[in-house]
């Protein structure tokens, strides 16, 4: 009654036409629109904002240098508050309404679980997401998913190597504190795999505390690690900065004297701020070099990002954007999405300014495998050259 | 008297017959009107009532189907949005009611009993239609409520689930806090197992709290499961069961555990606060999910949904019943409409049948009456006939006597006319012109159509045939008259005298061929039949063929010897000048004769023929050629030359041809700087004539002459490489043709004669030439019969010339007009040619010698002085 049949029919017919028209518009008028769905508000906003800052800094730099074969880059960033249920609509909006060429630098694993499916379905490149989870690192890789950073498994493997080789901690004295979702599971699985690789078969049975995402209810998890018969000397932590900080503080209050090692996703600066003085000796593994390093890309980064925005997250955003830009250049002028992916898979060396080039292939969609451990002292992060240095950190 | 009575009887009977026929005719028309009226009524009924009513019923039926389909679609919707998209069935409503109203009005138009019954039936449909439409309306409303409730339920269920998730998290958080407390306690026991510590572990609050919180977490899960089951409940019974059993128990258990927790946490302020929050949340959620008293609880909404669903199903059922009712009514009305049609057409058929019978009866009666009447009329007529024939008999006998004579005359006339007609038919059927000429020479009136066209229709006055054929030429007419008289005289056989009759006749631009045939009756010639056939086209074709042949020969002449040809043409012009400037008969005859020979030699056949005709007139009839005739000769020459120019181009006669070899010699001489005079002489020699070419020309002509005379001839040529300045000996060459012609015509015998005298059958003619100092010696030598000096002597005697010595005879031979031939041909025999030759020789300062033996041949030898001898020897030596 409210809508005449003809109007309804017209509406149905018109929809795809409008969508297609807008899409072609976005990609042909001298600009390349790139999308991003990330946490711009909420508990994880530091990550989303940091990534956006880094990506935009590099985009601006690229545009000032003449763009990609004369086409300017423009970023459309939508807020998903680190909620998977919001990431889906955002992704569809980016593809259907904004007609983005690719999605770059999304934050989060649970959100990625939704976003990757959409990207694959729409054949839109999903590039440089801020997550090290295995769902973005299938074997063989999804065609449209390309990563910059090392995986959580590689981060936790680095931790396990540090614990067992540098600090001489026995594998059975390692415990896990993880977020109760895909992110936590990814870190846990990586750690277990590394321990098993090191010859410790019972890794899955190690003390493992979990907490609910977007809460700080860590007591139950801590209770698991404090089981009287357990001896915990090192904790692999896969969580957000708030619960992690609370966990570290509460653990130390309750007499758990262990090495607390966090994966990069924790949000280093926020963690440092949250812990304050209590943070000394806490380890955070990074997938980017320390921002004081003299590597070319880091030097560039410092030149294009305001000092107050300098941190590991924005550096990752900057490097991921650089990987994206260099890949686009490799694909040539007016490249399609398919040509873009083909160029990446061609194995053509791409220089990100990390001291060596990267060659990807059909079987390898990840630029960097490197993990840079850092530790907190006096509220600041320092590169951790040798894990033994931790003994003097507290 | 009896005749008149018979007449009145016939009249009476005829009148009776026509009245009967009139009556039958009127009755037939009446029957026709009745039948038509009945059919029209039936047709009007079907057209105005039955067909529209059936259409209305169809509309009604499809409208019911549309509404019914609408209901099915309404029922199949799963959301308010879908329901809105479907809309109401107002169109179908209007259609339904409109169709019904139309049906009533259409049925009302049919006034008879069946239509009224159908109308009543249609009126009864009103409540069913109303009920059906109301049910449809109600169904839409019910489904709208149903969807609203379901969507409300779904929203609330999501809210409840979110609340439950929060509740679970909260429970888990409290559980974690309690667990940590308990674990820390356990660690203390593990490190330092004192009795009081152990007591606290076993009996302390921490352990009870842990238990309690775990129970609460489970209860939260139970609540979640229950909300799901409520959502799936299909009827009120299931809902009642859930509300009374599981929901009540779970709520009770939660309430108990919350109370326990409150007690257990009373000493821990932080925990107590958390427990309080949890309690509040639990209570609220449980009510939102399972409180039957609250209208907005999940269970209450679900109950409403179930009720609404059942209501919709009932409404649908009602609607379906109404629809069935309507469909049944429509079917009944369809039947009624069909019955209307049947009744109407049955009536029409009945009327038609009755009328047919009536018509049959009427027709039978009419026929019977007519037959009776006709019999009576026929009897009367027969009487009349009998009387009439008696009267006629008497009259015939009277007239018979004098008629017989006329009759015979008429028959004769007819036969004659018939014969004439058939004769004319025969005459006309041929394309020929047929004339019959009476023995006195008058042309009879019957003639064929072609003859009429050529000679005109028969004249009033009988015209003699000679006047008809030569109206403007009295001389020719006289000739024909004499021939005709000879023809009918029958002194000679008809065929012989017919040969003397004219064979061709020019008539306007047509040429007619005439044939003369006798018409005999009973062995005696009665008439002469003249058959004239139009042969104009054949004559034209012959002329065209002659022209083509002439052109071929002329072209051949040019190709063979262009210089000779050019000389020939020049001579012809000179001769024409002579012809135009004198009226001395002998000069004219010689010139004509030379021109004829010359023309024939180069292939100017028609010119030659013209000359021959003029020569004949001059020699035989003493008629000098008129200036017009001379001009026509000139014209003939020019016309022929222009045709050659068409082939070779304008100035083909003035071209000098140089042999490649001679050109090379000249180049060489110039390069080696030869003496100027010798080069000059050499180049001048290019215009010299080759005597060989000239002799070959004569040889060809000799062969042609031989062929035309049926003689065989071998010609030998020996030119000795001599060349003479162009034109220097032209006069001689022109005349030499007579010698050649004489040799072939008079000298060479026919083959059979040669074989009889022991000679080879081909005659032999040798033409020789050689340069002898400043003289050119030319010989014409044949192996023919030689000069008959006896005949020559007689001829000389006839002309009063000296004839005693052989020299005299030779002189006589070359005198004008001396010939030994008894007949004159185009070729030779007029005694003119040799005289011309002698004349030419003399002009050039040359001599002539004749050497002849009877039976062995003749040799003529000419010696001609040359002004300049051609010397080409230096060139060949220079080439060495």
How would you describe this structure to a colleague?
- The complex is a heterodimer of chains A (394) and B (880).
- Chain A folds into two domains: 2-150 and 293-363, Response regulator (Rossmann fold, 3-Layer(aba) Sandwich); 152-286 and 373-392, Response regulator (Rossmann fold).
- Chain A is 44% helix and 15% strand.
- Chain A has helices spanning 5-28, 45-64, 84-97, 109-122, 152-166, 182-197, 219-225, 241-253, 268-275, 296-304, 312-331, 337-345, 390-393; strands spanning 31-38, 72-79, 102-104, 126-127, 145-146, 174-179, 208-211, 234-238, 259-262, 283-286, 350-351, 357-358, 372-377, 380-383.
- A seven-stranded mixed beta sheet of chain A has the order 7-6-8-9-10-13-14, sandwiched between helices. Chain A has a five-stranded parallel beta sheet with strand order 2-1-3-4-5, sandwiched between helices. Chain A has a two-stranded antiparallel sheet with strand order 11-12.
- In chain A, helix 4 links the parallel strand 3 (102-104) and strand 4 (126-127).
- Chain A is globular.
- Chain A starts with a helix and ends with a helix.
- In chain A, 52% of the residues are buried.
- The model of chain A is unreliable at 1-28 (pLDDT under 50).
- Chain B has 880 residues and is of the alpha+beta class.
- Among the domains of chain B are: 153-305; 430-534, PAS domain (Beta-Lactamase); 540-657, Four Helix Bundle (Hemerythrin (Met), subunit A) (Up-down Bundle); 688-877, Histidine kinase-like ATPase, C-terminal domain (Heat Shock Protein 90).
- Chain B has 28 helices and twelve strands.
- In chain B, the strands form three sheets. A five-stranded antiparallel beta sheet of chain B has the order 2-1-5-4-3. A five-stranded mixed beta sheet of chain B has the order 7-9-10-12-11, with helices on one face.
- In chain B, a hairpin with a 2-residue loop joins strand 3 and strand 4 (510-521).
- In chain B, helix 1 runs parallel beside helix 5 (125-191).
- The longest helix of chain B has 132 residues, at 298-429.
- Chain B is elongated, with a radius of gyration of 73 Å.
- Chain A binds chain B through residues 1-5, 8, 211-212, 215, 217-224, 226-229, 250, 254-255, and chain B through 84-85, 87-88, 169, 172-173, 175-177, 179-180, 182-184, 186-187, 189-190.
